[in-house]
Amino acid sequence: PPPPPPPLWTGSLGLSYLMTTGNTDTETLGFTGALARLPTPWGVEIQAAANRAESEGTTTAERYFAGVRGKRAFGERWQAFAGISYESDEFAGFDSRMILEAGGVFRALAGPAHLLDFDAGLTWTDEEPVIGPGIDSFGALAGLAYEWKFSETASFRERLVAYPNFDESDDWRVRSETSVEAALATSWALRVSYLFTRDNLPAPGFEKDDSTTSVSIVWKR
């Protein structure tokens, strides 16, 4: 018989053990959450993440992220999107970074084993660095989202996004998140992920590259 249709709503909650290198070298606990509605034709994606660490009573790492993206499907291959995200990471050089985005998505591979989406659009960024005045800039995003279901219980995912800046060409950023996930039970999975970010023009005194490696126990719906 044909496989059942995918669920309209999906979600996950994860608790992680994190190891960071770059601007901070520490061990900590973290939280991740995601909720998505399949675009039929309207859909939405919501993501959140937080991690915090202390060493001898002193905070050594603290990062918070939240984002929402609305989608509108135009057939099986094309989607339009608009979204907003907020991030705070003082140890990477910024108190806050808010990004407004709008653009389109093209699905190059539709499964069942391989899913590949390309997205591109325009952005507006409002950033408050730790050092110096606030920065507002117009730019763009170009990225891909790839998933390989190499077995019935395991999958590989890669999300890569580049953020060029129209106002300052040297102030570009790249974000890559790679993960492997294997099911442990019906609603539980083990996830190993690696997050790499590069800010080519960080605040003075901060490094360009940051990375986070995490091992998570994830509850999925």
Q: How do you describe this structure in short?
A:
The protein is an all-beta fold and about 220 residues long.
Structural summary, described in words:
- By secondary structure, this protein is mainly beta.
- The chain has strands spanning 9-21, 26-37, 42-55, 58-74, 78-89, 94-110, 114-129, 135-148, 154-163, 173-183, 188-199, 209-220.
- It has a twelve-stranded antiparallel barrel with strand order 1-2-3-4-5-6-7-8-9-10-11-12.
Primary descriptors:
mainly beta; 12 strands; twelve-stranded antiparallel barrel; single chain; 221 residues
Largest sheet: 12 strands, antiparallel, barrel
Strand order of the largest sheet: 1-2-3-4-5-6-7-8-9-10-11-12
C-alpha Rg (nearest Å): 18 Å
- Mean pLDDT across residues: 91
- Helical content class: under 10%
Task: List the topology elements.
Elements: E1 9-21, E2 26-37, E3 42-55, E4 58-74, E5 78-89, E6 94-110, E7 114-129, E8 135-148, E9 154-163, E10 173-183, E11 188-199, E12 209-220
Antiparallel strand pairs: 1-2, 1-12, 2-3, 3-4, 4-5, 5-6, 6-7, 7-8, 8-9, 9-10, 10-11, 11-12
